[in-house]
Every structure is written in C-alpha cells, then in structure tokens.
Amino acid sequence: MRMQFVDLGKQYREYKKEIDQAIQGVLDSTQFINGDEVSSLEAELADFAGVSYAIGCSSGTDALLVPLMAKGVKPGDEILVPAFTYFATASMVSHWGARPVFVDVDPITFNIDPAKIEEKITNKTRGIFAVSLYGQPADFDAINSIAKAHGLWVLEDAAQSFGARSGSKCSCNLSEIATTSFFPAKPLGCYGDGGAMFTNDPDLADLLRKYINHGQSKRYHHRYVGINGRLDTIQAAILRVKLRNFSQEIELRNEAAAYYTKHLQDIVETPVIIDGNVSSWAQYTIKVENRDKVREVLSTKEIPTSVHYPMPLYKQEAFSYLKDSGPYPVSDSLSTQVLSLPMHAFITRNEQDEVIASIREAIHG
Ligand SMILES: *Cc1c(COP(=O)(O)O)cnc(C)c1O
C-alpha cells in the first residue's frame, strides 16, 4: 500500500481496542448528546492546555463563529485576520456580517505579522483572529500588547496547533479566547467534525456554552439567539482515547519533522521554529521555487503532497466584495511556493527517506 499524507488507518489500528470500546460505551449508554464523555473530555482538554475552561463544539468553523456572537460583534465591525490561512478563519467573520480585514504574514513563521497590524486598526476594529499556522504559535506577546493598547480582544485560531507550546504556555492558552478543530486530519482529530473553544474567563466561558446550545439559560428558556453547535458524544469518546496518547504523538511528530529538516535543509527552505516554540506539526511545509515540477515527480512515485494554501484569502472570489487588492506580498509569494509533505505520528523513517530522495531527485534532476 502506498504512503498516506496523514495515515489515520495506522493510528486507528494502534488504538483500535480502546476506540471500539469507547464508541460501544456510548451506544450502550444511549447518551448521544452531551453527558459524561463530553464533560470529561472538556475537563481533560482544559487540563492538557492549562486553560480554565474548554467547551466542545461542532467544528473548528463553528468555534470561530460563536465567539463573534459572545463578543457582541455587530455588522460593519472589523476583525483583523491573516491574509494567508485557511478560508474558515475569515469566512465566519464575513458570515456573521462583520468585515474581515487582512494583514500580511511574517516571511519566517507565515503567521500574522505583528509589525503590520497597527496600520490596519480603525475605529471599527473589535478583535484579532491570529492563526497558529501549521502548528507553530503566532507571536502572541506582540499581538496581545498591540490589542491591549487599542482595546481589542484576541482569539487564537489553534485549529492546527493544539498540542503546540510557546515558552511555558500551551497553544489555546496564549490569548483571551482560543479555538481548535478536531477535523480527522488535524493533530488531534476525531472521526467526523468537531472542535473546541478555550478561555480563562468564567463569564465568557458561560456565554460560549450558552451560544452553542440555542442561547438557552435553562431548558426552553432562551436568553440569546444561538446555534446548535454541540460536540457529538461519540466524537468526545473517541477524542478521550486519542488525547491520552497525544503527548506521545506530538513527540513523534517532532522527531519526524527534525528528520525531514536534517535531510532537506541543504536543498529546500525547511520550516523555521522560533526559539521557545514547539510546533504540533499539523503540516510539515517546505518552500520550493519549482513547486509544480517537484509535485509532479512526487506524484509519479505515488507520494501524496498538498498545498496549504494556493491562494491568499484576499484573492478568493467569495471575498471579492471586500474590494481589497492588497498588497500582501508575503502571502502572494508563499502561495506559489509552499508544499506540505506527508506528516503524522506514525510515519516511518523508510517512508520519509522515500520522500526525501524523491525531492532531491526532483530538484537536482
Ligand atoms: C481546519 C481549520 C479550520 C476549520 O476547522 P473545521 O473543523 O474543519 O471546521 C479553521 N481554521 C484553520 C486555520 C483550520 O486549519
């Protein structure tokens, strides 16, 4: 069988007994919505990330929508978002009727560039959605201090970085609010859609929890207009098994990343992790000038690769109504050069050797 980009089958076989038991347990209990599995997972997620409150929800996308509701963001309000990230970071802002205002990214980390934030702040700016792209935390010390000076709140879109660290703190504990995704291929993935929101503020936690349950204060009494954005109980049970093994998986991902870097850094631009940061390696992404050719050589050898992302957000058709033509030079150039390689906790050195040899062949001809 050929190599997988993210080998979920291998991971399942590793934990099959525990996962099957966890799913069966939910079936036997018939507690399909909320219940012990969800509340236990929330406590375990909070404990893992060192945050006071974790609130499970239906996806990483809904996790970005609900804080806009809880923060009372109004039509026309502006939220700063990186120009180079997954679509959902900006689409929920737009969906909620607010305006995503793009900020170019740093050429080393590919995360929002703090030096370019202030020029985008207006009297309509309410908050900043900063993404920890590919698993490396953004520069939250700088972002938080700019936000504080301007009376803004900060949300970490940690969809790719659960399990990462910045100094002594974990991703999801670096800003007022954080969100993550349990999409199957994310570092901590479930077997469908799922996500979570994090905060240390008890009042905000309470609001977020109400908004994912129809704004309900008690049964059939609705204080707010919210959504049905709860995390499925079966998914929570699966996530509890995976979370028990997650620290070990983060270590394995870091070993695999170090191996790629050691054997590729002389021929391509390999990822740079800032001192004090630990990445969760949602993606291992190199930069190459002749990306199409490299992809083609790898694909003839049935080595899967992916491009995260081929287009900066300001160029997306869905955002043409913003009439924002930049410039976002770093985002533009990244979108033509980035290439993500197979990466997961169970990748073998043999598989990596094959990827490495193929890249060397593609570059040296
Ligand atoms: C995956 C992802 C999301 C969306 O998460 P879903 O669970 O798929 O809805 C949001 N932001 C970023 C940066 C992502 O990578």
UniProtKB/TrEMBL annotation:
<dbReference type="InterPro" id="IPR015422">
    <property type="entry name" value="PyrdxlP-dep_Trfase_small"/>
</dbReference>
<keyword id="KW-0032">Aminotransferase</keyword>
<feature type="modified residue" description="N6-(pyridoxal phosphate)lysine">
    <location>
        <position position="186"/>
    </location>
</feature>
<keyword id="KW-0663">Pyridoxal phosphate</keyword>
<keyword id="KW-0808">Transferase</keyword>
<dbReference type="Pfam" id="PF01041">
    <property type="entry name" value="DegT_DnrJ_EryC1"/>
</dbReference>
<dbReference type="InterPro" id="IPR015421">
    <property type="entry name" value="PyrdxlP-dep_Trfase_major"/>
</dbReference>
<dbReference type="GO" id="GO:0000271">
    <property type="term" value="P:polysaccharide biosynthetic process"/>
</dbReference>
<comment type="similarity">
    <text>Belongs to the DegT/DnrJ/EryC1 family.</text>
</comment>
<dbReference type="InterPro" id="IPR000653">
    <property type="entry name" value="DegT/StrS_aminotransferase"/>
</dbReference>
<feature type="active site" description="Proton acceptor">
    <location>
        <position position="186"/>
    </location>
</feature>
<dbReference type="GO" id="GO:0030170">
    <property type="term" value="F:pyridoxal phosphate binding"/>
</dbReference>
<dbReference type="GO" id="GO:0008483">
    <property type="term" value="F:transaminase activity"/>
</dbReference>
<dbReference type="InterPro" id="IPR015424">
    <property type="entry name" value="PyrdxlP-dep_Trfase"/>
</dbReference>
<protein>
    <submittedName>
        <fullName>Aminotransferase DegT</fullName>
    </submittedName>
</protein>
